[in-house]
């Protein structure tokens, strides 16, 4: 994506950088607050894995449909208005996710939630591109680290509130207050403009771009599995109390955050190829451990290893897209971004269907095999 700003627009500075970090925190916090609610929603509506997977697909559809629309709206109305609107959609959806018990209402609530998440995520990344370019420095890893930090606070905080005996609706009320407070802090310095692209918002990837996009899809699928299925797996297969089942995603998000905040140094030391190979193997090992170890404590270690392995693969793949010449960068980057988000948002629905046909353990084991394929792909890619 190539951003074009007019001379009349104020060049982003330190305050805009701060607001961008808060915006990433909002995105991570909002999506992670849902993870501990999944077992409650499943039990409240009496859902099996296949039906739950279908419901989660509506979240992905809402988000993916909202992403390109958010880019168009940000160009016309600015990042501030669109990001604020997306945050308000999240705040509207969360109480519904904590209370509704019928399938049609859950579908509508998840679609609304997904639309809010897609709007916030797309607009936040758009602002990040503009702010980073204006700074003349590499800042994207730190921005995305704030997303992961929001994930830790969201999953861990909501799990703690539920563990204290607070109802899901009460926990969501606390989440909404925090989201609105963060938005109030960030809003004055969110950009009042967006950017224009020299290429289409989406193009079908091919060649090396399709290869890279496929690897992104798998890594994001693993992240989506941790978000939407770890709590269900721990509660259903390992017997952990549903109030604490969100700790699986919290462990994943913690190590993902640490990995991202130290990622630039790691890539410089190991090289991009080794980061993909070692990362894929570490992630696969962690998911195998989380799935087949008999204790929930070992499963938490496994989810932590999954976060370590996945943390720096996607940033390296984005760098590789910038080096390829098969497709223009302004087209290739949106293409692999869409593939990636299809993995994190729509992919967990596939896991639900596989789990329904076999078992959740089999679905996770298959996911681990795909992560090994990412490691092999790193050797083939040679970035």
Automatic annotation (TrEMBL):
This is MFS transporter. It comes from the Bacteria. Keywords: Membrane, Transmembrane, Transmembrane helix. It is a multi-pass membrane protein. Residues 208-383 form the Major facilitator superfamily (MFS) profile domain. It comes from Pseudomonas kielensis. One of its GO terms (cellular component) is membrane. It is found in: Membrane. GO terms for molecular function: transmembrane transporter activity.
């Amino acid at each position: 994506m190539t951003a074009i700003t007019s001379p009349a627009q104020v060049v982003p500075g330190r305050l805009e950088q701060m607001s961008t970090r808060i915006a990433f925190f909002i995105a991570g916090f909002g999506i992670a607050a849902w993870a501990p609610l999944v077992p409650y929603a499943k039990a409240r509506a009496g859902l099996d894995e296949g039906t739950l997977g279908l419901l989660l697909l509506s979240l992905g559809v809402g988000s993916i449909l909202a992403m390109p629309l958010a880019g168009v709206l940000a160009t016309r109305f600015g990042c501030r208005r669109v990001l604020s609107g997306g945050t308000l959609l999240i705040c509207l959806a969360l109480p519904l996710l904590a209370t509704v018990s019928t399938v049609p209402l859950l579908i509508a609530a998840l679609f609304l939630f997904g639309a809010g998440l897609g709007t916030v995520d797309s607009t936040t990344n758009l602002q990040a591109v503009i702010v980073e370019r204006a700074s003349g420095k590499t800042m994207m890893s730190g921005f995305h680290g704030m997303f992961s930090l929001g994930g830790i606070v969201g999953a861990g905080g909501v799990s703690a509130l539920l563990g204290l005996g607070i109802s899901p609706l009460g926990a969501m009320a606390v989440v909404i207050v925090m989201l609105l407070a963060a938005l109030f802090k960030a809003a004055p310095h969110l950009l009042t403009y967006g950017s224009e692209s020299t290429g289409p918002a989406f193009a079908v990837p091919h060649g090396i771009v399709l290869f890279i996009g496929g690897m992104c899809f798998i890594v994001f699928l693993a992240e989506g599995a941790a978000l939407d299925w770890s709590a269900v797996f721990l509660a259903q297969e390992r017997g952990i109390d549903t109030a604490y089942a969100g700790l699986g995603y919290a462990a994943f998000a913690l190590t993902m955050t640490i990995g991202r905040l130290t990622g630039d140094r790691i890539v410089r030391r190991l090289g991009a190829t080794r980061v993909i190979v070692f990362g894929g193997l570490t992630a696969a090992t962690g998911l195998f451990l989380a799935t087949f170890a008999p204790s929930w404590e070992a499963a938490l270690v496994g989810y932590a290893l999954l976060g370590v392995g996945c943390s720096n693969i996607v940033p390296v793949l984005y760098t590789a897209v910038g080096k390829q010449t098969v497709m223009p960068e302004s087209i290739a980057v949106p293409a692999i971004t869409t593939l990636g988000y299809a993995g994190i948002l729509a992919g967990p629905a596939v896991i639900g269907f596989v789990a329904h046909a076999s078992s959740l353990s089999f679905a996770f084991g298959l996911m681990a095999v795909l992560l090994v394929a990412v490691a092999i792909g790193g050797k083939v890619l040679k970035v």
